[in-house]
Amino acid sequence: MRLGGRLAAAIEILEDIDKQQRPAADALKDWGVSHRFAGAGDRAAIGNIVYDGLRRKRSAGWLLGDDTPRAIGFGVLLLEWRETVQSLNEALEGDKFAPPPLNLDELQAIAARDPEAAPDPVRADCADWCAPLLQRAFGDEWVNEASGLAERPPLDLRVNTLKADRAKMLAELAETGAVPTRLAPNGLRIAPVDGAGRHPNVQSDPAFRQGWFEVQDEGSQAAAELVGARPGMQVLDYCAGAGGKTLALSAALENHGQIFAHDSEKGRLAPIFERIQRSGSRNIQVASKSAELADLRGRMDCVLVDAPCTGSGTWRRRPDAKWRLTQRQLDVRKAEQAAILEAASAYVKPGGHLVYVTCSVFDEENRDQIDAFLARETEFAPVDHHALWEERFPAEKARIDGERGVSLTPARSGTDGFFIAKLRRNF
Ligand SMILES: C[S@@+](CC[C@H](N)C(=O)[O-])C[C@H]1O[C@@H](n2cnc3c(N)ncnc32)[C@H](O)[C@@H]1O
């Protein structure tokens, strides 16, 4: 397929996502099934236009003076793919699968608009109702921080130190261009791809099947590091889901001590069993029912609450979620987070720690939750987050509120957006 055919396919998929309000991954998969002739390179290129279009939906549409899938598809090629009006016209000419070329209105809009001078919510590529949330979280930096959340992400891996080390993995994955991550001590990073490129399918590498590494954003790895799990500890991962952080904690425990992996939704835990087996972890006990946790009350050295959240920190990877999010969903998440913090805190022993993590950048899900929890539960007090950060990552910058927690963002730390607060139970 030439660029025109790929663009037409991307516009069709963007229309489908818009009309059906469905996840981008599902729409792309269905398109692939009904267009089996498309090769791997075409699928990657079409997927990139769709995902870039969703990341930069507002600014791409604004450039053409419209918010249709067509405007977004063309706009994002101009904004992100280094195409020009001229190069696009040349590429589309004579391609019978291409969409109609840019019309006069579109050409006039493009000529009249300077992306740098666009209104703030357009440059931030966010919904209007989210702008005040981002402003509150980032102050004067909000547009820059929000546009960081609209960039392509890298592919990050965590080396499983139960089976391998970083030098061994660097050699194994040399062809991928992987380099050590700056923050996470066991991380590797494969840089974001350009244009129609695609990341290597690392999960088909024999080293993955042998459990030498996992795919995990560096921010998630850093969050697991800040939990401070050490060999011999008793740790409860209260919202374990598919086990991304459980496995990182298990490696930190070096198989000494115990991790209890819990999640209220049994189905979410389903992938954890195979992952545990592959990783060589021998100290993870999966507990899907709350009743199975009864004996752990007041006994844990550390309880991790990796809370359900809006996921606003992961908009680079799931840009469709950015446009589906509603105020009502945020309110539901806030209520869940408060209830989970309350319930999980009962398992921490005196002198132990409660660690609250979200992959959101909104204060409403982060520091506000910590403030409200500390006001209710006087036996808990925050650790010194500056000292915590310095101890683990002395050379790196993060947005730190000493009392409430550490915030990571693409613009600041080059990771997904994460919030981490560590509280000590004093009595
Ligand atoms: C952010 S995800 C966890 C991701 C996981 N820790 C990882 O690193 O891969 C949040 C999880 O919280 C779970 N959850 C939601 N409500 C819960 C509750 N009341 N108690 C325990 N887990 C809950 C969800 O099912 C979801 O799997």
From TrEMBL:
Active-site positions, per UniProt?
A: C359 (nucleophile)
Give an example GO molecular function: RNA binding
Keyword annotations for this protein?
Methyltransferase, RNA-binding, S-adenosyl-L-methionine, Transferase
Q: Name one Pfam family in it.
A: RsmF-B_ferredox
Question: Which lineage do the record's taxonomy fields give for this organism?
Answer: Bacteria, Pseudomonadati, Pseudomonadota, Alphaproteobacteria, Hyphomicrobiales
Transferase listed as a keyword:
yes
- State the family it belongs to: Belongs to the class I-like SAM-binding methyltransferase superfamily. RsmB/NOP family.
Q: Name one GO biological process term.
A: RNA methylation
Q: Does the keyword Metal-binding apply?
A: no
Which organism does this record belong to? Borborobacter arsenicus
Q: What is this protein called?
A: RsmB/NOP family class I SAM-dependent RNA methyltransferase
Give every SAM-dependent MTase RsmB/NOP-type domain span.
Answer: 145-426
Which residues of the sequence carry a binding annotation for S-adenosyl-L-methionine?
Answer: D263, D306
Q: What Gene3D superfamilies does the database record attribute to this sequence?
A: Vaccinia Virus protein VP39
